[in-house]
Write a structure and sequence with these properties.
Strand order of the largest sheet: 1-2
Number of strands: 2
Order of helices and strands: HHHHHHEEHHHHHH
Helix content: over 70%
Structural class: mainly alpha
Number of helices: 12
Oligomer: single chain
Largest sheet: 2 strands, antiparallel
């Protein structure tokens, strides 16, 4: 399964990057967030899944379990890219809220400059949060869910809570609230639409259709992220709550099996966006078809 996730994720995220850099859609702030999230998802998949996929498929030993620097570097990259990617989706949700507002001052906040500035701040904060991986984690550990794991009690509790709250729960709540406000704005705009008389109705209709398509793509991604990352958040809370309890070897083995299963689930939101966007996003499908036509034209020439 890990090899399937890896291959489909690499192909999907590369195609995402090609689509989101097309001139017809790249000027939208939320598209910038989608584009950067695709790059980060690609990095997270390659750094996180590759050792496991090669170990299970080619019987190659996982060096990140035995070499401390590889262990620390891999987890730092995975945790940082996942956190930034989650918050980029939150930024995209906030952008949908701003662009759908009837208040012109709020709509003006939706621009590429603010999107880039927000992305820079999120990236710096994520790096600062997860820099502790180089001090807290080590390889060749015994009695932990993985050989590459936090080596002290304080580090384990911090990382369990940080992954649950900062990477999963808080971004999901931001997306949910922004989504609810966006739906409210869309309903209000539909009620006031007939008052627009002096503007090209076809242009307005096309722009609204594109914006709805982007919003639908975001909603699908948020649902996917929530379904496949909340199990890990719950499992992290469980590990934190039962940390000081005495456990049997059978219970530890069961917890380790569950840990690795929900860990694999968390990579699915990184490999599926392209396929979700293709299904749910009209503007994405049109841009993708146009891109394929360009490539075929170049090959024919």
């Amino acid at each position: 399964m890990s090899m399937i996730i890896l291959i489909s994720g690499i192909v999907g995220n590369i195609l995402n990057c090609l689509v989101f850099t097309q001139r017809s859609i790249r000027s939208r702030p939320c598209v910038i967030c989608f584009f950067l999230a695709s790059i980060l998802n690609l990095i997270a998949l390659v750094s996180g899944i590759t050792p496991r996929a090669f170990q299970s498929f080619f019987m190659m030993p996982d060096q990140t379990e035995t070499i401390p620097m590889f262990c620390k570097l891999r987890l730092f990259v995975v945790y940082t890219t996942r956190t930034i990617s989650s918050w980029l989706l939150s930024l995209a949700a906030i952008d949908r809220y701003l662009i759908s507002s009837s208040n012109i001052n709020r709509r003006q906040l939706s621009n590429i400059k603010n999107a880039c500035l927000s992305t820079f701040i999120i990236s710096i904060l994520s790096i600062l949060i997860w820099i502790e991986v180089f001090f807290c984690f080590d390889a060749n550990l015994i009695g932990t869910p993985q050989k590459c794991y936090a080596k002290s009690d304080a580090c384990r509790v911090f990382n369990d809570l940080a992954q649950s709250l900062i990477t999963t729960i808080i971004p999901s709540l931001v997306m949910l609230l922004a989504g609810l406000f966006t739906i409210s704005h869309v309903r209000d705009s539909q009620r006031t639409a007939p008052s627009l008389e002096n503007v090209n109705k076809n242009t307005i209709r096309r722009n609204r259709k594109d914006e709805r398509s982007l919003t639908l793509m975001l909603i699908a991604q948020v649902i996917l992220l929530t379904i496949f990352t909340f199990p890990q958040a719950g499992q992290k809370f469980y590990l934190t709550y039962t940390f000081y309890q005495i456990k049997s070897s059978t219970q530890r083995a069961l917890e380790s099996l569950l840990f690795n299963f929900v860990l694999l689930l968390t990579y699915i939101p990184s490999c599926m966006p392209f396929y979700l966007y293709t299904i749910t996003g009209t503007i994405f499908r049109k841009t993708l078809i146009t891109l394929f036509k360009k490539l075929l034209f170049l090959n024919n020439n």
